[in-house]
Amino acid sequence: MPHRANKKRRLTRARHSSAADRRDNRGSPRASLNTTRGMSPGSRKFLSEPAKRKAAKRHPPIRSTRNGAIRNPKTELEAATQRFVDLYDFAPIAYVSFGRAGRIEEANLMAAELLDEPRDRLIGRPFAFYVADLDLFMLHLLSCRTSQRQVKTELQLKTRKGELIPAQLLSTPITSTTRNGALLFQTAIIDLGERKRHEQQLAEQARLLDLSNDAILVRDANDRITYWNKGATKIYGYTWQEALGKVTHNLLKTERSEPLPKIYEKLFRDNYWEGELVHTRRDGKRLTVFSRWVLDRDAQGKRSFILETNNDVTRRKQMEIALQESKKLLEERVRERTRDLRMANKELLDEIARRKGLEGEILEISDREQQRLGQEIHDGLCQHLTAVAFMARSVALRLKNHRVIDAGDIEKIAQLVNDAATDTRNLSRALHRIDVDSAGFITALEDLVDREIWRIPCRLEVKPSFHIEDDVAAGELYRIAREAVINANKHSEAREIVIKLERTRSEMVLRVIDDGVGFSSNPKAKRGLGAHIMGYRARLMGARLEIDSPKRGGTRVSCYLPDRRLQPKERKNNRTQPFPARIVKALATLI
After folding, report:
1. DSSP label at 482?
2. Closest alpha carbon to 97 in 15, 178, 172
3. Looking at residue 280, what DSSP letter applies?
4. Rounded to 5°, angle at Cα 279 from 277 and 285
5. Is residue 424 assigned to a domain?
6. Geometric angle at alpha carbon 132, from 126 and 135, rounded to 5°
7. How many domains does the chain divide into?
8. Are residues 437 and 571 in the same domain?
9. Which of 37, 84, 448, 486 stands 20 to 30 A from 438 (CA)?
């Protein structure tokens, strides 16, 4: 307690001494200014009466030369001083003045409000009491002592309640008239809290912009880059240090689809532009970007900044080009398919017309073959039966008349009956459909060439390498061979017919060869119904049929069957009915 009382008395004496010094130096304007700064708001407005009287003695009134009025320099000085004091006290910036030791000598209202301390308590207190960063303040104070220029320092202030305030100190050395020329440092305290908050917000916004995958950059009025985000670095390969200050069009070698003046015309008119540009990366690779420009104007409406956002659409453009090419290719394929369908439709119509013609031809041939069969039955079987009946009636008359019967007549009757049976059997074989499998294929061909109904001798030649395992293919080959033998007997006028079975490297070959007239004298043989039937059967089993005339003459029918295991079920499902039912029935009758 005594220590506190002594300290209080020392402070009181120091204040009285300071007040006395100020009263002794109030003669000059600077002294008056420095004196009023330390006063309370109530006493600051008027000087004391002794001071007024002393000032009146030193500065007597001066009469004005204009209107004869008496001017009082003391009153004018007080008014000017009061105006200066008001400007100092009510300034929007906090001001303090401290000495070489850092003790506060003067402070305005804004400083008291900023530090949350009454002004009478600020005066005489060390400024370090309100500083959180003591080291920075001591460096600042040392710089003020050693420099004649303004000293700037950013640090953290601490209010009475412990609240931290970011601030900047701007200290200027002055000479105090109230301190006998003592050096003071008049300091402006700039509150950086709002600026720091803005900087933090800008940093947060910049961080968010860096999260974007698009390139975001800001250009000034000269198209020089002032901002460059991480997305731009990722897309173009330039760091922000390399990009800042560069002209975008030169740095990125911009290629445009329309002239730059036209782009700027639209930008200045609408404050917005968008379109595709071609840029070049740092590594020389060209990129297609979709660019959006937004114009920012200042208070006078002049161009200030341009915010540019670029989205890399190179891959999308490549896909669009590929899609267009695919579309063109698809359209070409559609045209080709349409053309093929038209050709197939034409071929189908031709085939329908041809089959209609074949239908009439088949019916005509069927009628003709029926007549031929009837004629053969009449000329062969009927004659045999008539002869048998005549001889049997002759024998019956002899028996009736009890005459002697010749045994030769009975044997002749038996021979005629056997001949009739043979003819009937041959006709039955010709009309009956024979089912041939792979195992009985060779046997069926041997039976075919041994028939007595053929007018031209036939023989069979089989190479050891020939083999067939498909029952359906064996049946079709047998029918092709039989059709070829029938056609040769009808049209070739040959002396011999040979059926050959052989094997090439990849195919089984059936050949039916005759030494007859060939196609030169009988061209209808190649275009007739039999040739069409054989070709149809060859296609059913996936084979190839050729009909030609060898150099030595005659006709050669060749069927080439690929040497592979065929699937009977598949081929059965793929079989189509080439003719109407009544035509098939007629073909069965003929074949």
Report:
1. H
2. 172
3. E
4. 135
5. no
6. 80
7. 4
8. yes
9. 486
Of 544, 547, 586, the C-alpha closest to 368 is 586
Within a domain: 439: yes
Look at residue 13 in the predicted model and tell me its pLDDT. Answer: 45
CB 84 within 8 A of CB 163: no
Q: Of 145, 179, 213, which marks where a domain is finished?
A: 179
Answer whether residue 37 shows pLDDT above 50. no
Residues of the domain holding 572 = 433-590
Residues 227, 214 contacting (CB under 8 angstroms): no
Only one residue has tokens 């700039």, namely: 190
Report whether 508 contacts 469 (CB < 8 A): no
Are residues 444 and 578 located together in one domain of the fold? yes
Distance CA 186, CA 206 (A): 38
Instruction: Please report where in the chains the tokens 């600020």 appear, as a residue.
Output: 122
579 falls within a domain? yes
Predicted local distance difference test score (pLDDT) of residue 429: 61
Confirm if 295 and 306 have CB atoms less than 8 A apart.
Answer: yes
Helix then strand then coil, % of the chain, to nearest 5: 55, 20, 25
Q: What is the mean pLDDT of the chain?
A: 77
Q: What is the predicted pLDDT for the residue at 237?
A: 92
Same domain, 501 and 477: yes
407 and 442 share a domain?
A: no
Residue with tokens 């007239």: 517
- The tokens describing 340, both together, are 């093929």
Segment 183-222, tens digit of pLDDT: 888 899 988 888 878 878 877 877 777 778 889 999 998 8
- Do 476 and 564 lie in a common domain? yes
pLDDT digits (tens, 9 = 90+) for 324-344: 999 999 999 999 999 999 999
Please enumerate in sequence order all residues whose Cβ is within 8 A of that of 171, keeping only pairs 6 or more positions apart, or say none.
140, 144, 150, 151, 153, 185, 186, 187
Q: Which residue has the higher pLDDT, 53 or 164?
A: 164
Residue ranges with strand state E in 177-331: 182-191, 215-219, 225-228, 255-256, 272-280, 286-297, 303-312
Are β-strands 497-503 and 62-63 bridged in parallel, bridged antiparallel, or unpaired? unpaired
Band (52; pLDDT cuts 50, 70, 90):
very low
Question: Quick check: 492 and 554 in contact, CB under 8 A?
Answer: yes
pLDDT digits (tens, 9 = 90+) for 141-191: 999 988 888 999 999 999 888 889 899 999 998 877 666 777 888 899 988
Same domain for 236 and 156, yes or no, is no
Pair 16, 162 in one domain: yes
Q: Name the pTM for this structure.
A: 0.39
Q: What is the DSSP string of 10-74?
A: HHHHHHHHHHHHHHHTTTSHHHHHHHHHTS-TTTTSS--HHHHHHHHHHS--EE-TTT-PEE-HH
The domain that holds 508 is classified in CATH as 3.30.565.10
For the purposes of burial, counting CB atoms within 10 Å of the CB of 228, is it exposed (0-12), middle (13-18) or buried (19 or more)? buried
- Which parts of 377-406 fold into alpha helices (H)? 383-400
